Amino acid sequence: MNQKNIGLARHSLAHLMAAAIQKLWPNVRFGVGPFIENGFYYDIEIPDYSLTEADLEKIEEKMREFIKTDIKYIREEISLDEAIEMFQDLNQPYKVELLRDIKTKGTTKIDAPEFKFLAEDPEVISIYYSGDFVDLCRGPHLESVRDINLAFKLTHLAGAYWRGDEKNKMLTRIYGLAFATQKELDEHLAMLEEAKKRDHRKLGKELDLFVFSDLVGPGMPLFTPKGYIIRKEIIKLDVELQENIGFLEVHTPQINKAELFKISGHWDKYKNDMLMVKSHYSDEEYFLKPMNCPQHTQIYASQKRSYRDLPIRYADFANLFRDEKPGELSGLTRLRCFAQDDGHSFCREDQIAEEFANILEIINKALKIYGLDYYVRLSLWDENQKEKYLGDEKIWTKSQALLEQLLKDNKINYQTALGEAAFYGPKMDIIAKDAIGREWQLSTIQLDFNMPERFNLKYTDSDGLEKHPVMVHRAIIGSPERFLGILLEHYAGAFPLWLSPVQVKILSVASTHEEHCQNLVKKFKQALIRAEADITNETLGNKIRKASGEKIPYLLVIGDKEINSDKLAVRVRGQEKLLAIGEAEFMDKMKKLIAERSPEL
């Protein structure tokens, strides 16, 4: 079954689940219920009843009963007023609200997921019947519930604010999974169980890496000393890689006048995701910046530029801010405050290919060091929604053809995704796969002909004429904070030696060994190796269990035998057999592995 048909069947399953819920709880009120990647969901409210996980089995059983019948999916088109009256009679206030919103705005082309299944014409509303259940829906659906040939399972409940707004009522969201075969479903369920064990929010707390505080605010992480070390090492690698291809680090303010974002285009396309700042002393509008590109244009614009000066490359790790909805925040992977390994190259058109190749090379190096496999996605604009993008069709045709040719010239296999472009230009996205097969969009290379024109950036070419440079946006791993969360789950907390906050831990057997342990720690630190000693008054077994739980790469146990030996007995993480090695040799090997960012011994 191809992906299109799977999507059709998942969509039909969402309606089938709603029909089953209505059969079990006739007074249910429905929000929205689309299909999503790997499954479907429906947002509902049952007055005077709170669903529990135990109810999922009852709903699923009723769905399977229905599948044995021949309930048809029947589409009808009715007027907007008829639809409002129908859903009022059905006591479906959330559907009525959507319909009245369409009536007020005069269009169904509203940039919100709850509208995407309605008819194109705001005066004609499409509805679907499936037995006694009726829903607002653009469709299409399968012909009958008997045609749903997917392995499915209802998995869990979650809270979801109506229309994603925390000011609205909290509904219950019921999630389901659906795959072409039972084998695929079972494999995905096993992956989800493994993901629970690797949850970076749980591991971050256990390993003492970061915290959140209600007093600081949601989506604003506080990194502990150990977490800061990892974040710093991620950034350090980025800096080394980008310096090798000529990027120079700059620093720009977090707060900027609204006018900057009005010129860049972020105001029109992005302002609802930006946090406003109010001055006590002036009436100017200020915003916390959501990205660095507009600021970098102003550094470029501060001087006259010649074709000989190009390319000019800036990189920036300043904090960025986005007004994410509280319900969408998720540990480190969805934040309101974060940095980004943001870089911008201002170049001539004849330099684009070389810039592309150089940036792709350092992305490859980074992901190889982290042990992440990936594929490439060519993200293009949606020509049916041109209003979402800056620039005219001519610019987009040119930039998309150029980026696609660069991928072909570099012999890169890629998938194409319509509608995934940045609002200012097409992009090549790196989709990385972690240790358990989940996909994460990380790196990106983006071509932008629009912003240099909007800011009237110029350089004097060899023919004496002034021309606009091309702006190449790039990220190596994206946000260091988000990437740390991804790595936590990828490594299951067992970071490679170079990233580990504590690289070696020294455990005393008794109080008489404390001084030797502390002297060893000093030696390791002098060799720039991160070391700690556990000289607490606990049993050695407890110390080993605690250190193993901290997932430290190397443990040294120091007792009388070890003090009198010329060899260290090293416990290597994940290995049973002790490694006997001289102190100087061990330190030299550790330093070499750390410098090369290699795995453990």
Name its key features:
5-stranded antiparallel beta sheet; 8-stranded mixed beta sheet; 601 residues; Threonyl-tRNA Synthetase, Chain A, domain 2; BirA Bifunctional Protein, domain 2; 30 strands; Rossmann fold; alpha+beta
Description of the structure:
- The structure is a single chain.
- By secondary structure, this protein is an alpha+beta fold.
- The chain has three domains: 3-198, 2-Layer Sandwich (Threonyl-tRNA Synthetase, Chain A, domain 2), CATH 3.30.980; 233-490, BirA Bifunctional Protein, domain 2 (2-Layer Sandwich), CATH 3.30.930; 504-596, Rossmann fold, CATH 3.40.50.800.
- The protein contains 18 helices and 30 strands.
- The strands form eight sheets. An eight-stranded mixed β-sheet has the order 11-15-18-25-22-21-19-20, sandwiched between helices. Strands 1, 2, 3, 7 and 8 form a five-stranded antiparallel β-sheet that branches. It has a five-stranded mixed β-sheet with strand order 27-26-28-29-30, sandwiched between helices.
- α1 crosses α2 (53-67), α6 (200-206) crosses α14 and α7 packs antiparallel against α11.
- The longest helix is centred in the first third of the chain and has 22 residues, at 3-24.
- The radius of gyration is 28 Å and the shape is globular.
Briefly summarize what is shown:
With 601 residues, the protein is an alpha+beta fold. It is built from 18 helices and 30 strands. It is globular, with a radius of gyration of 28 Å.
Main β-sheet: number of strands, strand sense, barrel status?
8 strands, mixed
Total number of helices:
18
Low-confidence parts, pLDDT < 50 over ≥5 residues? 108-115
* Overall tally of structural domains: 3
Helix content: 25-40%
The name of the CATH architecture of the largest domain is 2-Layer Sandwich
- Strand arrangement, largest sheet? 11-15-18-25-22-21-19-20
| CATH topology-level name of the largest domain | BirA Bifunctional Protein, domain 2
Provide the CATH top-level class of the largest domain: Alpha Beta
* N-end to C-end Cα span: 46 Å
Oligomer: single chain
